[in-house]
Amino acid sequence: MDLISIDSLSDSDIATILDEGDRWFDYNRQPRRNADKLDGLTIVNAFFENSTRTLLSFEIAANRLGAQVVTMQVEMSSIKKGETLEDTARTLNAMRPDALIIRHGLSGAPSSIASIMDCPVINAGDGSGEHPTQALLDAATLRRRFGRIAGLKVAICGDLKHSRVAHSNIKLLTRLGAELRLAGPPELLPDDFQGDGSIDAAVDGADAVMMLRIQRERLDEEFGDAPGEYLDRYGLTAARIAKAAPDVVVMHPGPINRGVEIDGALADDPTRSLIILQVEMGVAVRMACLDLLTAERLSP
Ligand code: ASP
Q: Which of 133, 163, 262, 278 to mutate to test the pocket of ligand 1 (most atoms within 8 A of CB)?
């Protein structure tokens, strides 16, 4: 089984990942963690795009489960000598890893790699495609805070066109019964977007507001905005959040751009911001994903 998209998962897989993620979250808060569920397995990380949270949390997750973890040094690899991604995958496959975690700038790359690999492949973000483990950790974070997801009003605001986090979250949170409100600047809304994309309307009465960074690396042209203009027009400010539900929470997959899509003080507000909790949940949910995906390899 591969985890390429939220569509790769059955409802029962999702339930298992959220439940187990919650359990690993508590486990990770213990002073000593020495699980050996993946003892004897080799997990390879191949990240062809930058990452702080996702790469480190996959490394830590695999280590906490007792696996041997290898992270490919892409900058020093033969990709720089003209090797194709497919040939790199054939090479990795010959080393018999037990799971491959891949991030790539090209949407669809993890799925083509999965057809070459004999082990489970996890998509850790493919261009503007999907980022399924981010959505799973977001859902687990929301559920930990509210005890449920069904019926929550969740606003997802920003660069909806290019954000793989948004694409996976829209699929997952809809399946889990949340009421989504989507908003962003007209230039950064998907071509088939319905509605006016107003952030004020999206945040009004929302239980959770998930802000997204402008994916400048995926834009052909500079997104022209004077300093402060984006925040005023499309960002999360104290004035906007005041119209949300009284116990609203603020989320962001990171990296945050303070003063652009979010007022830094809101990102830091310990009563509302779940941003750091999302990072902590990221390790736990990735442990659950690795455990689920490798389980069939370990069963006799
Ligand atoms: N870290 C997330 C991603 O890799 C969000 C972002 O970069 O804006 O998609």
A: 163
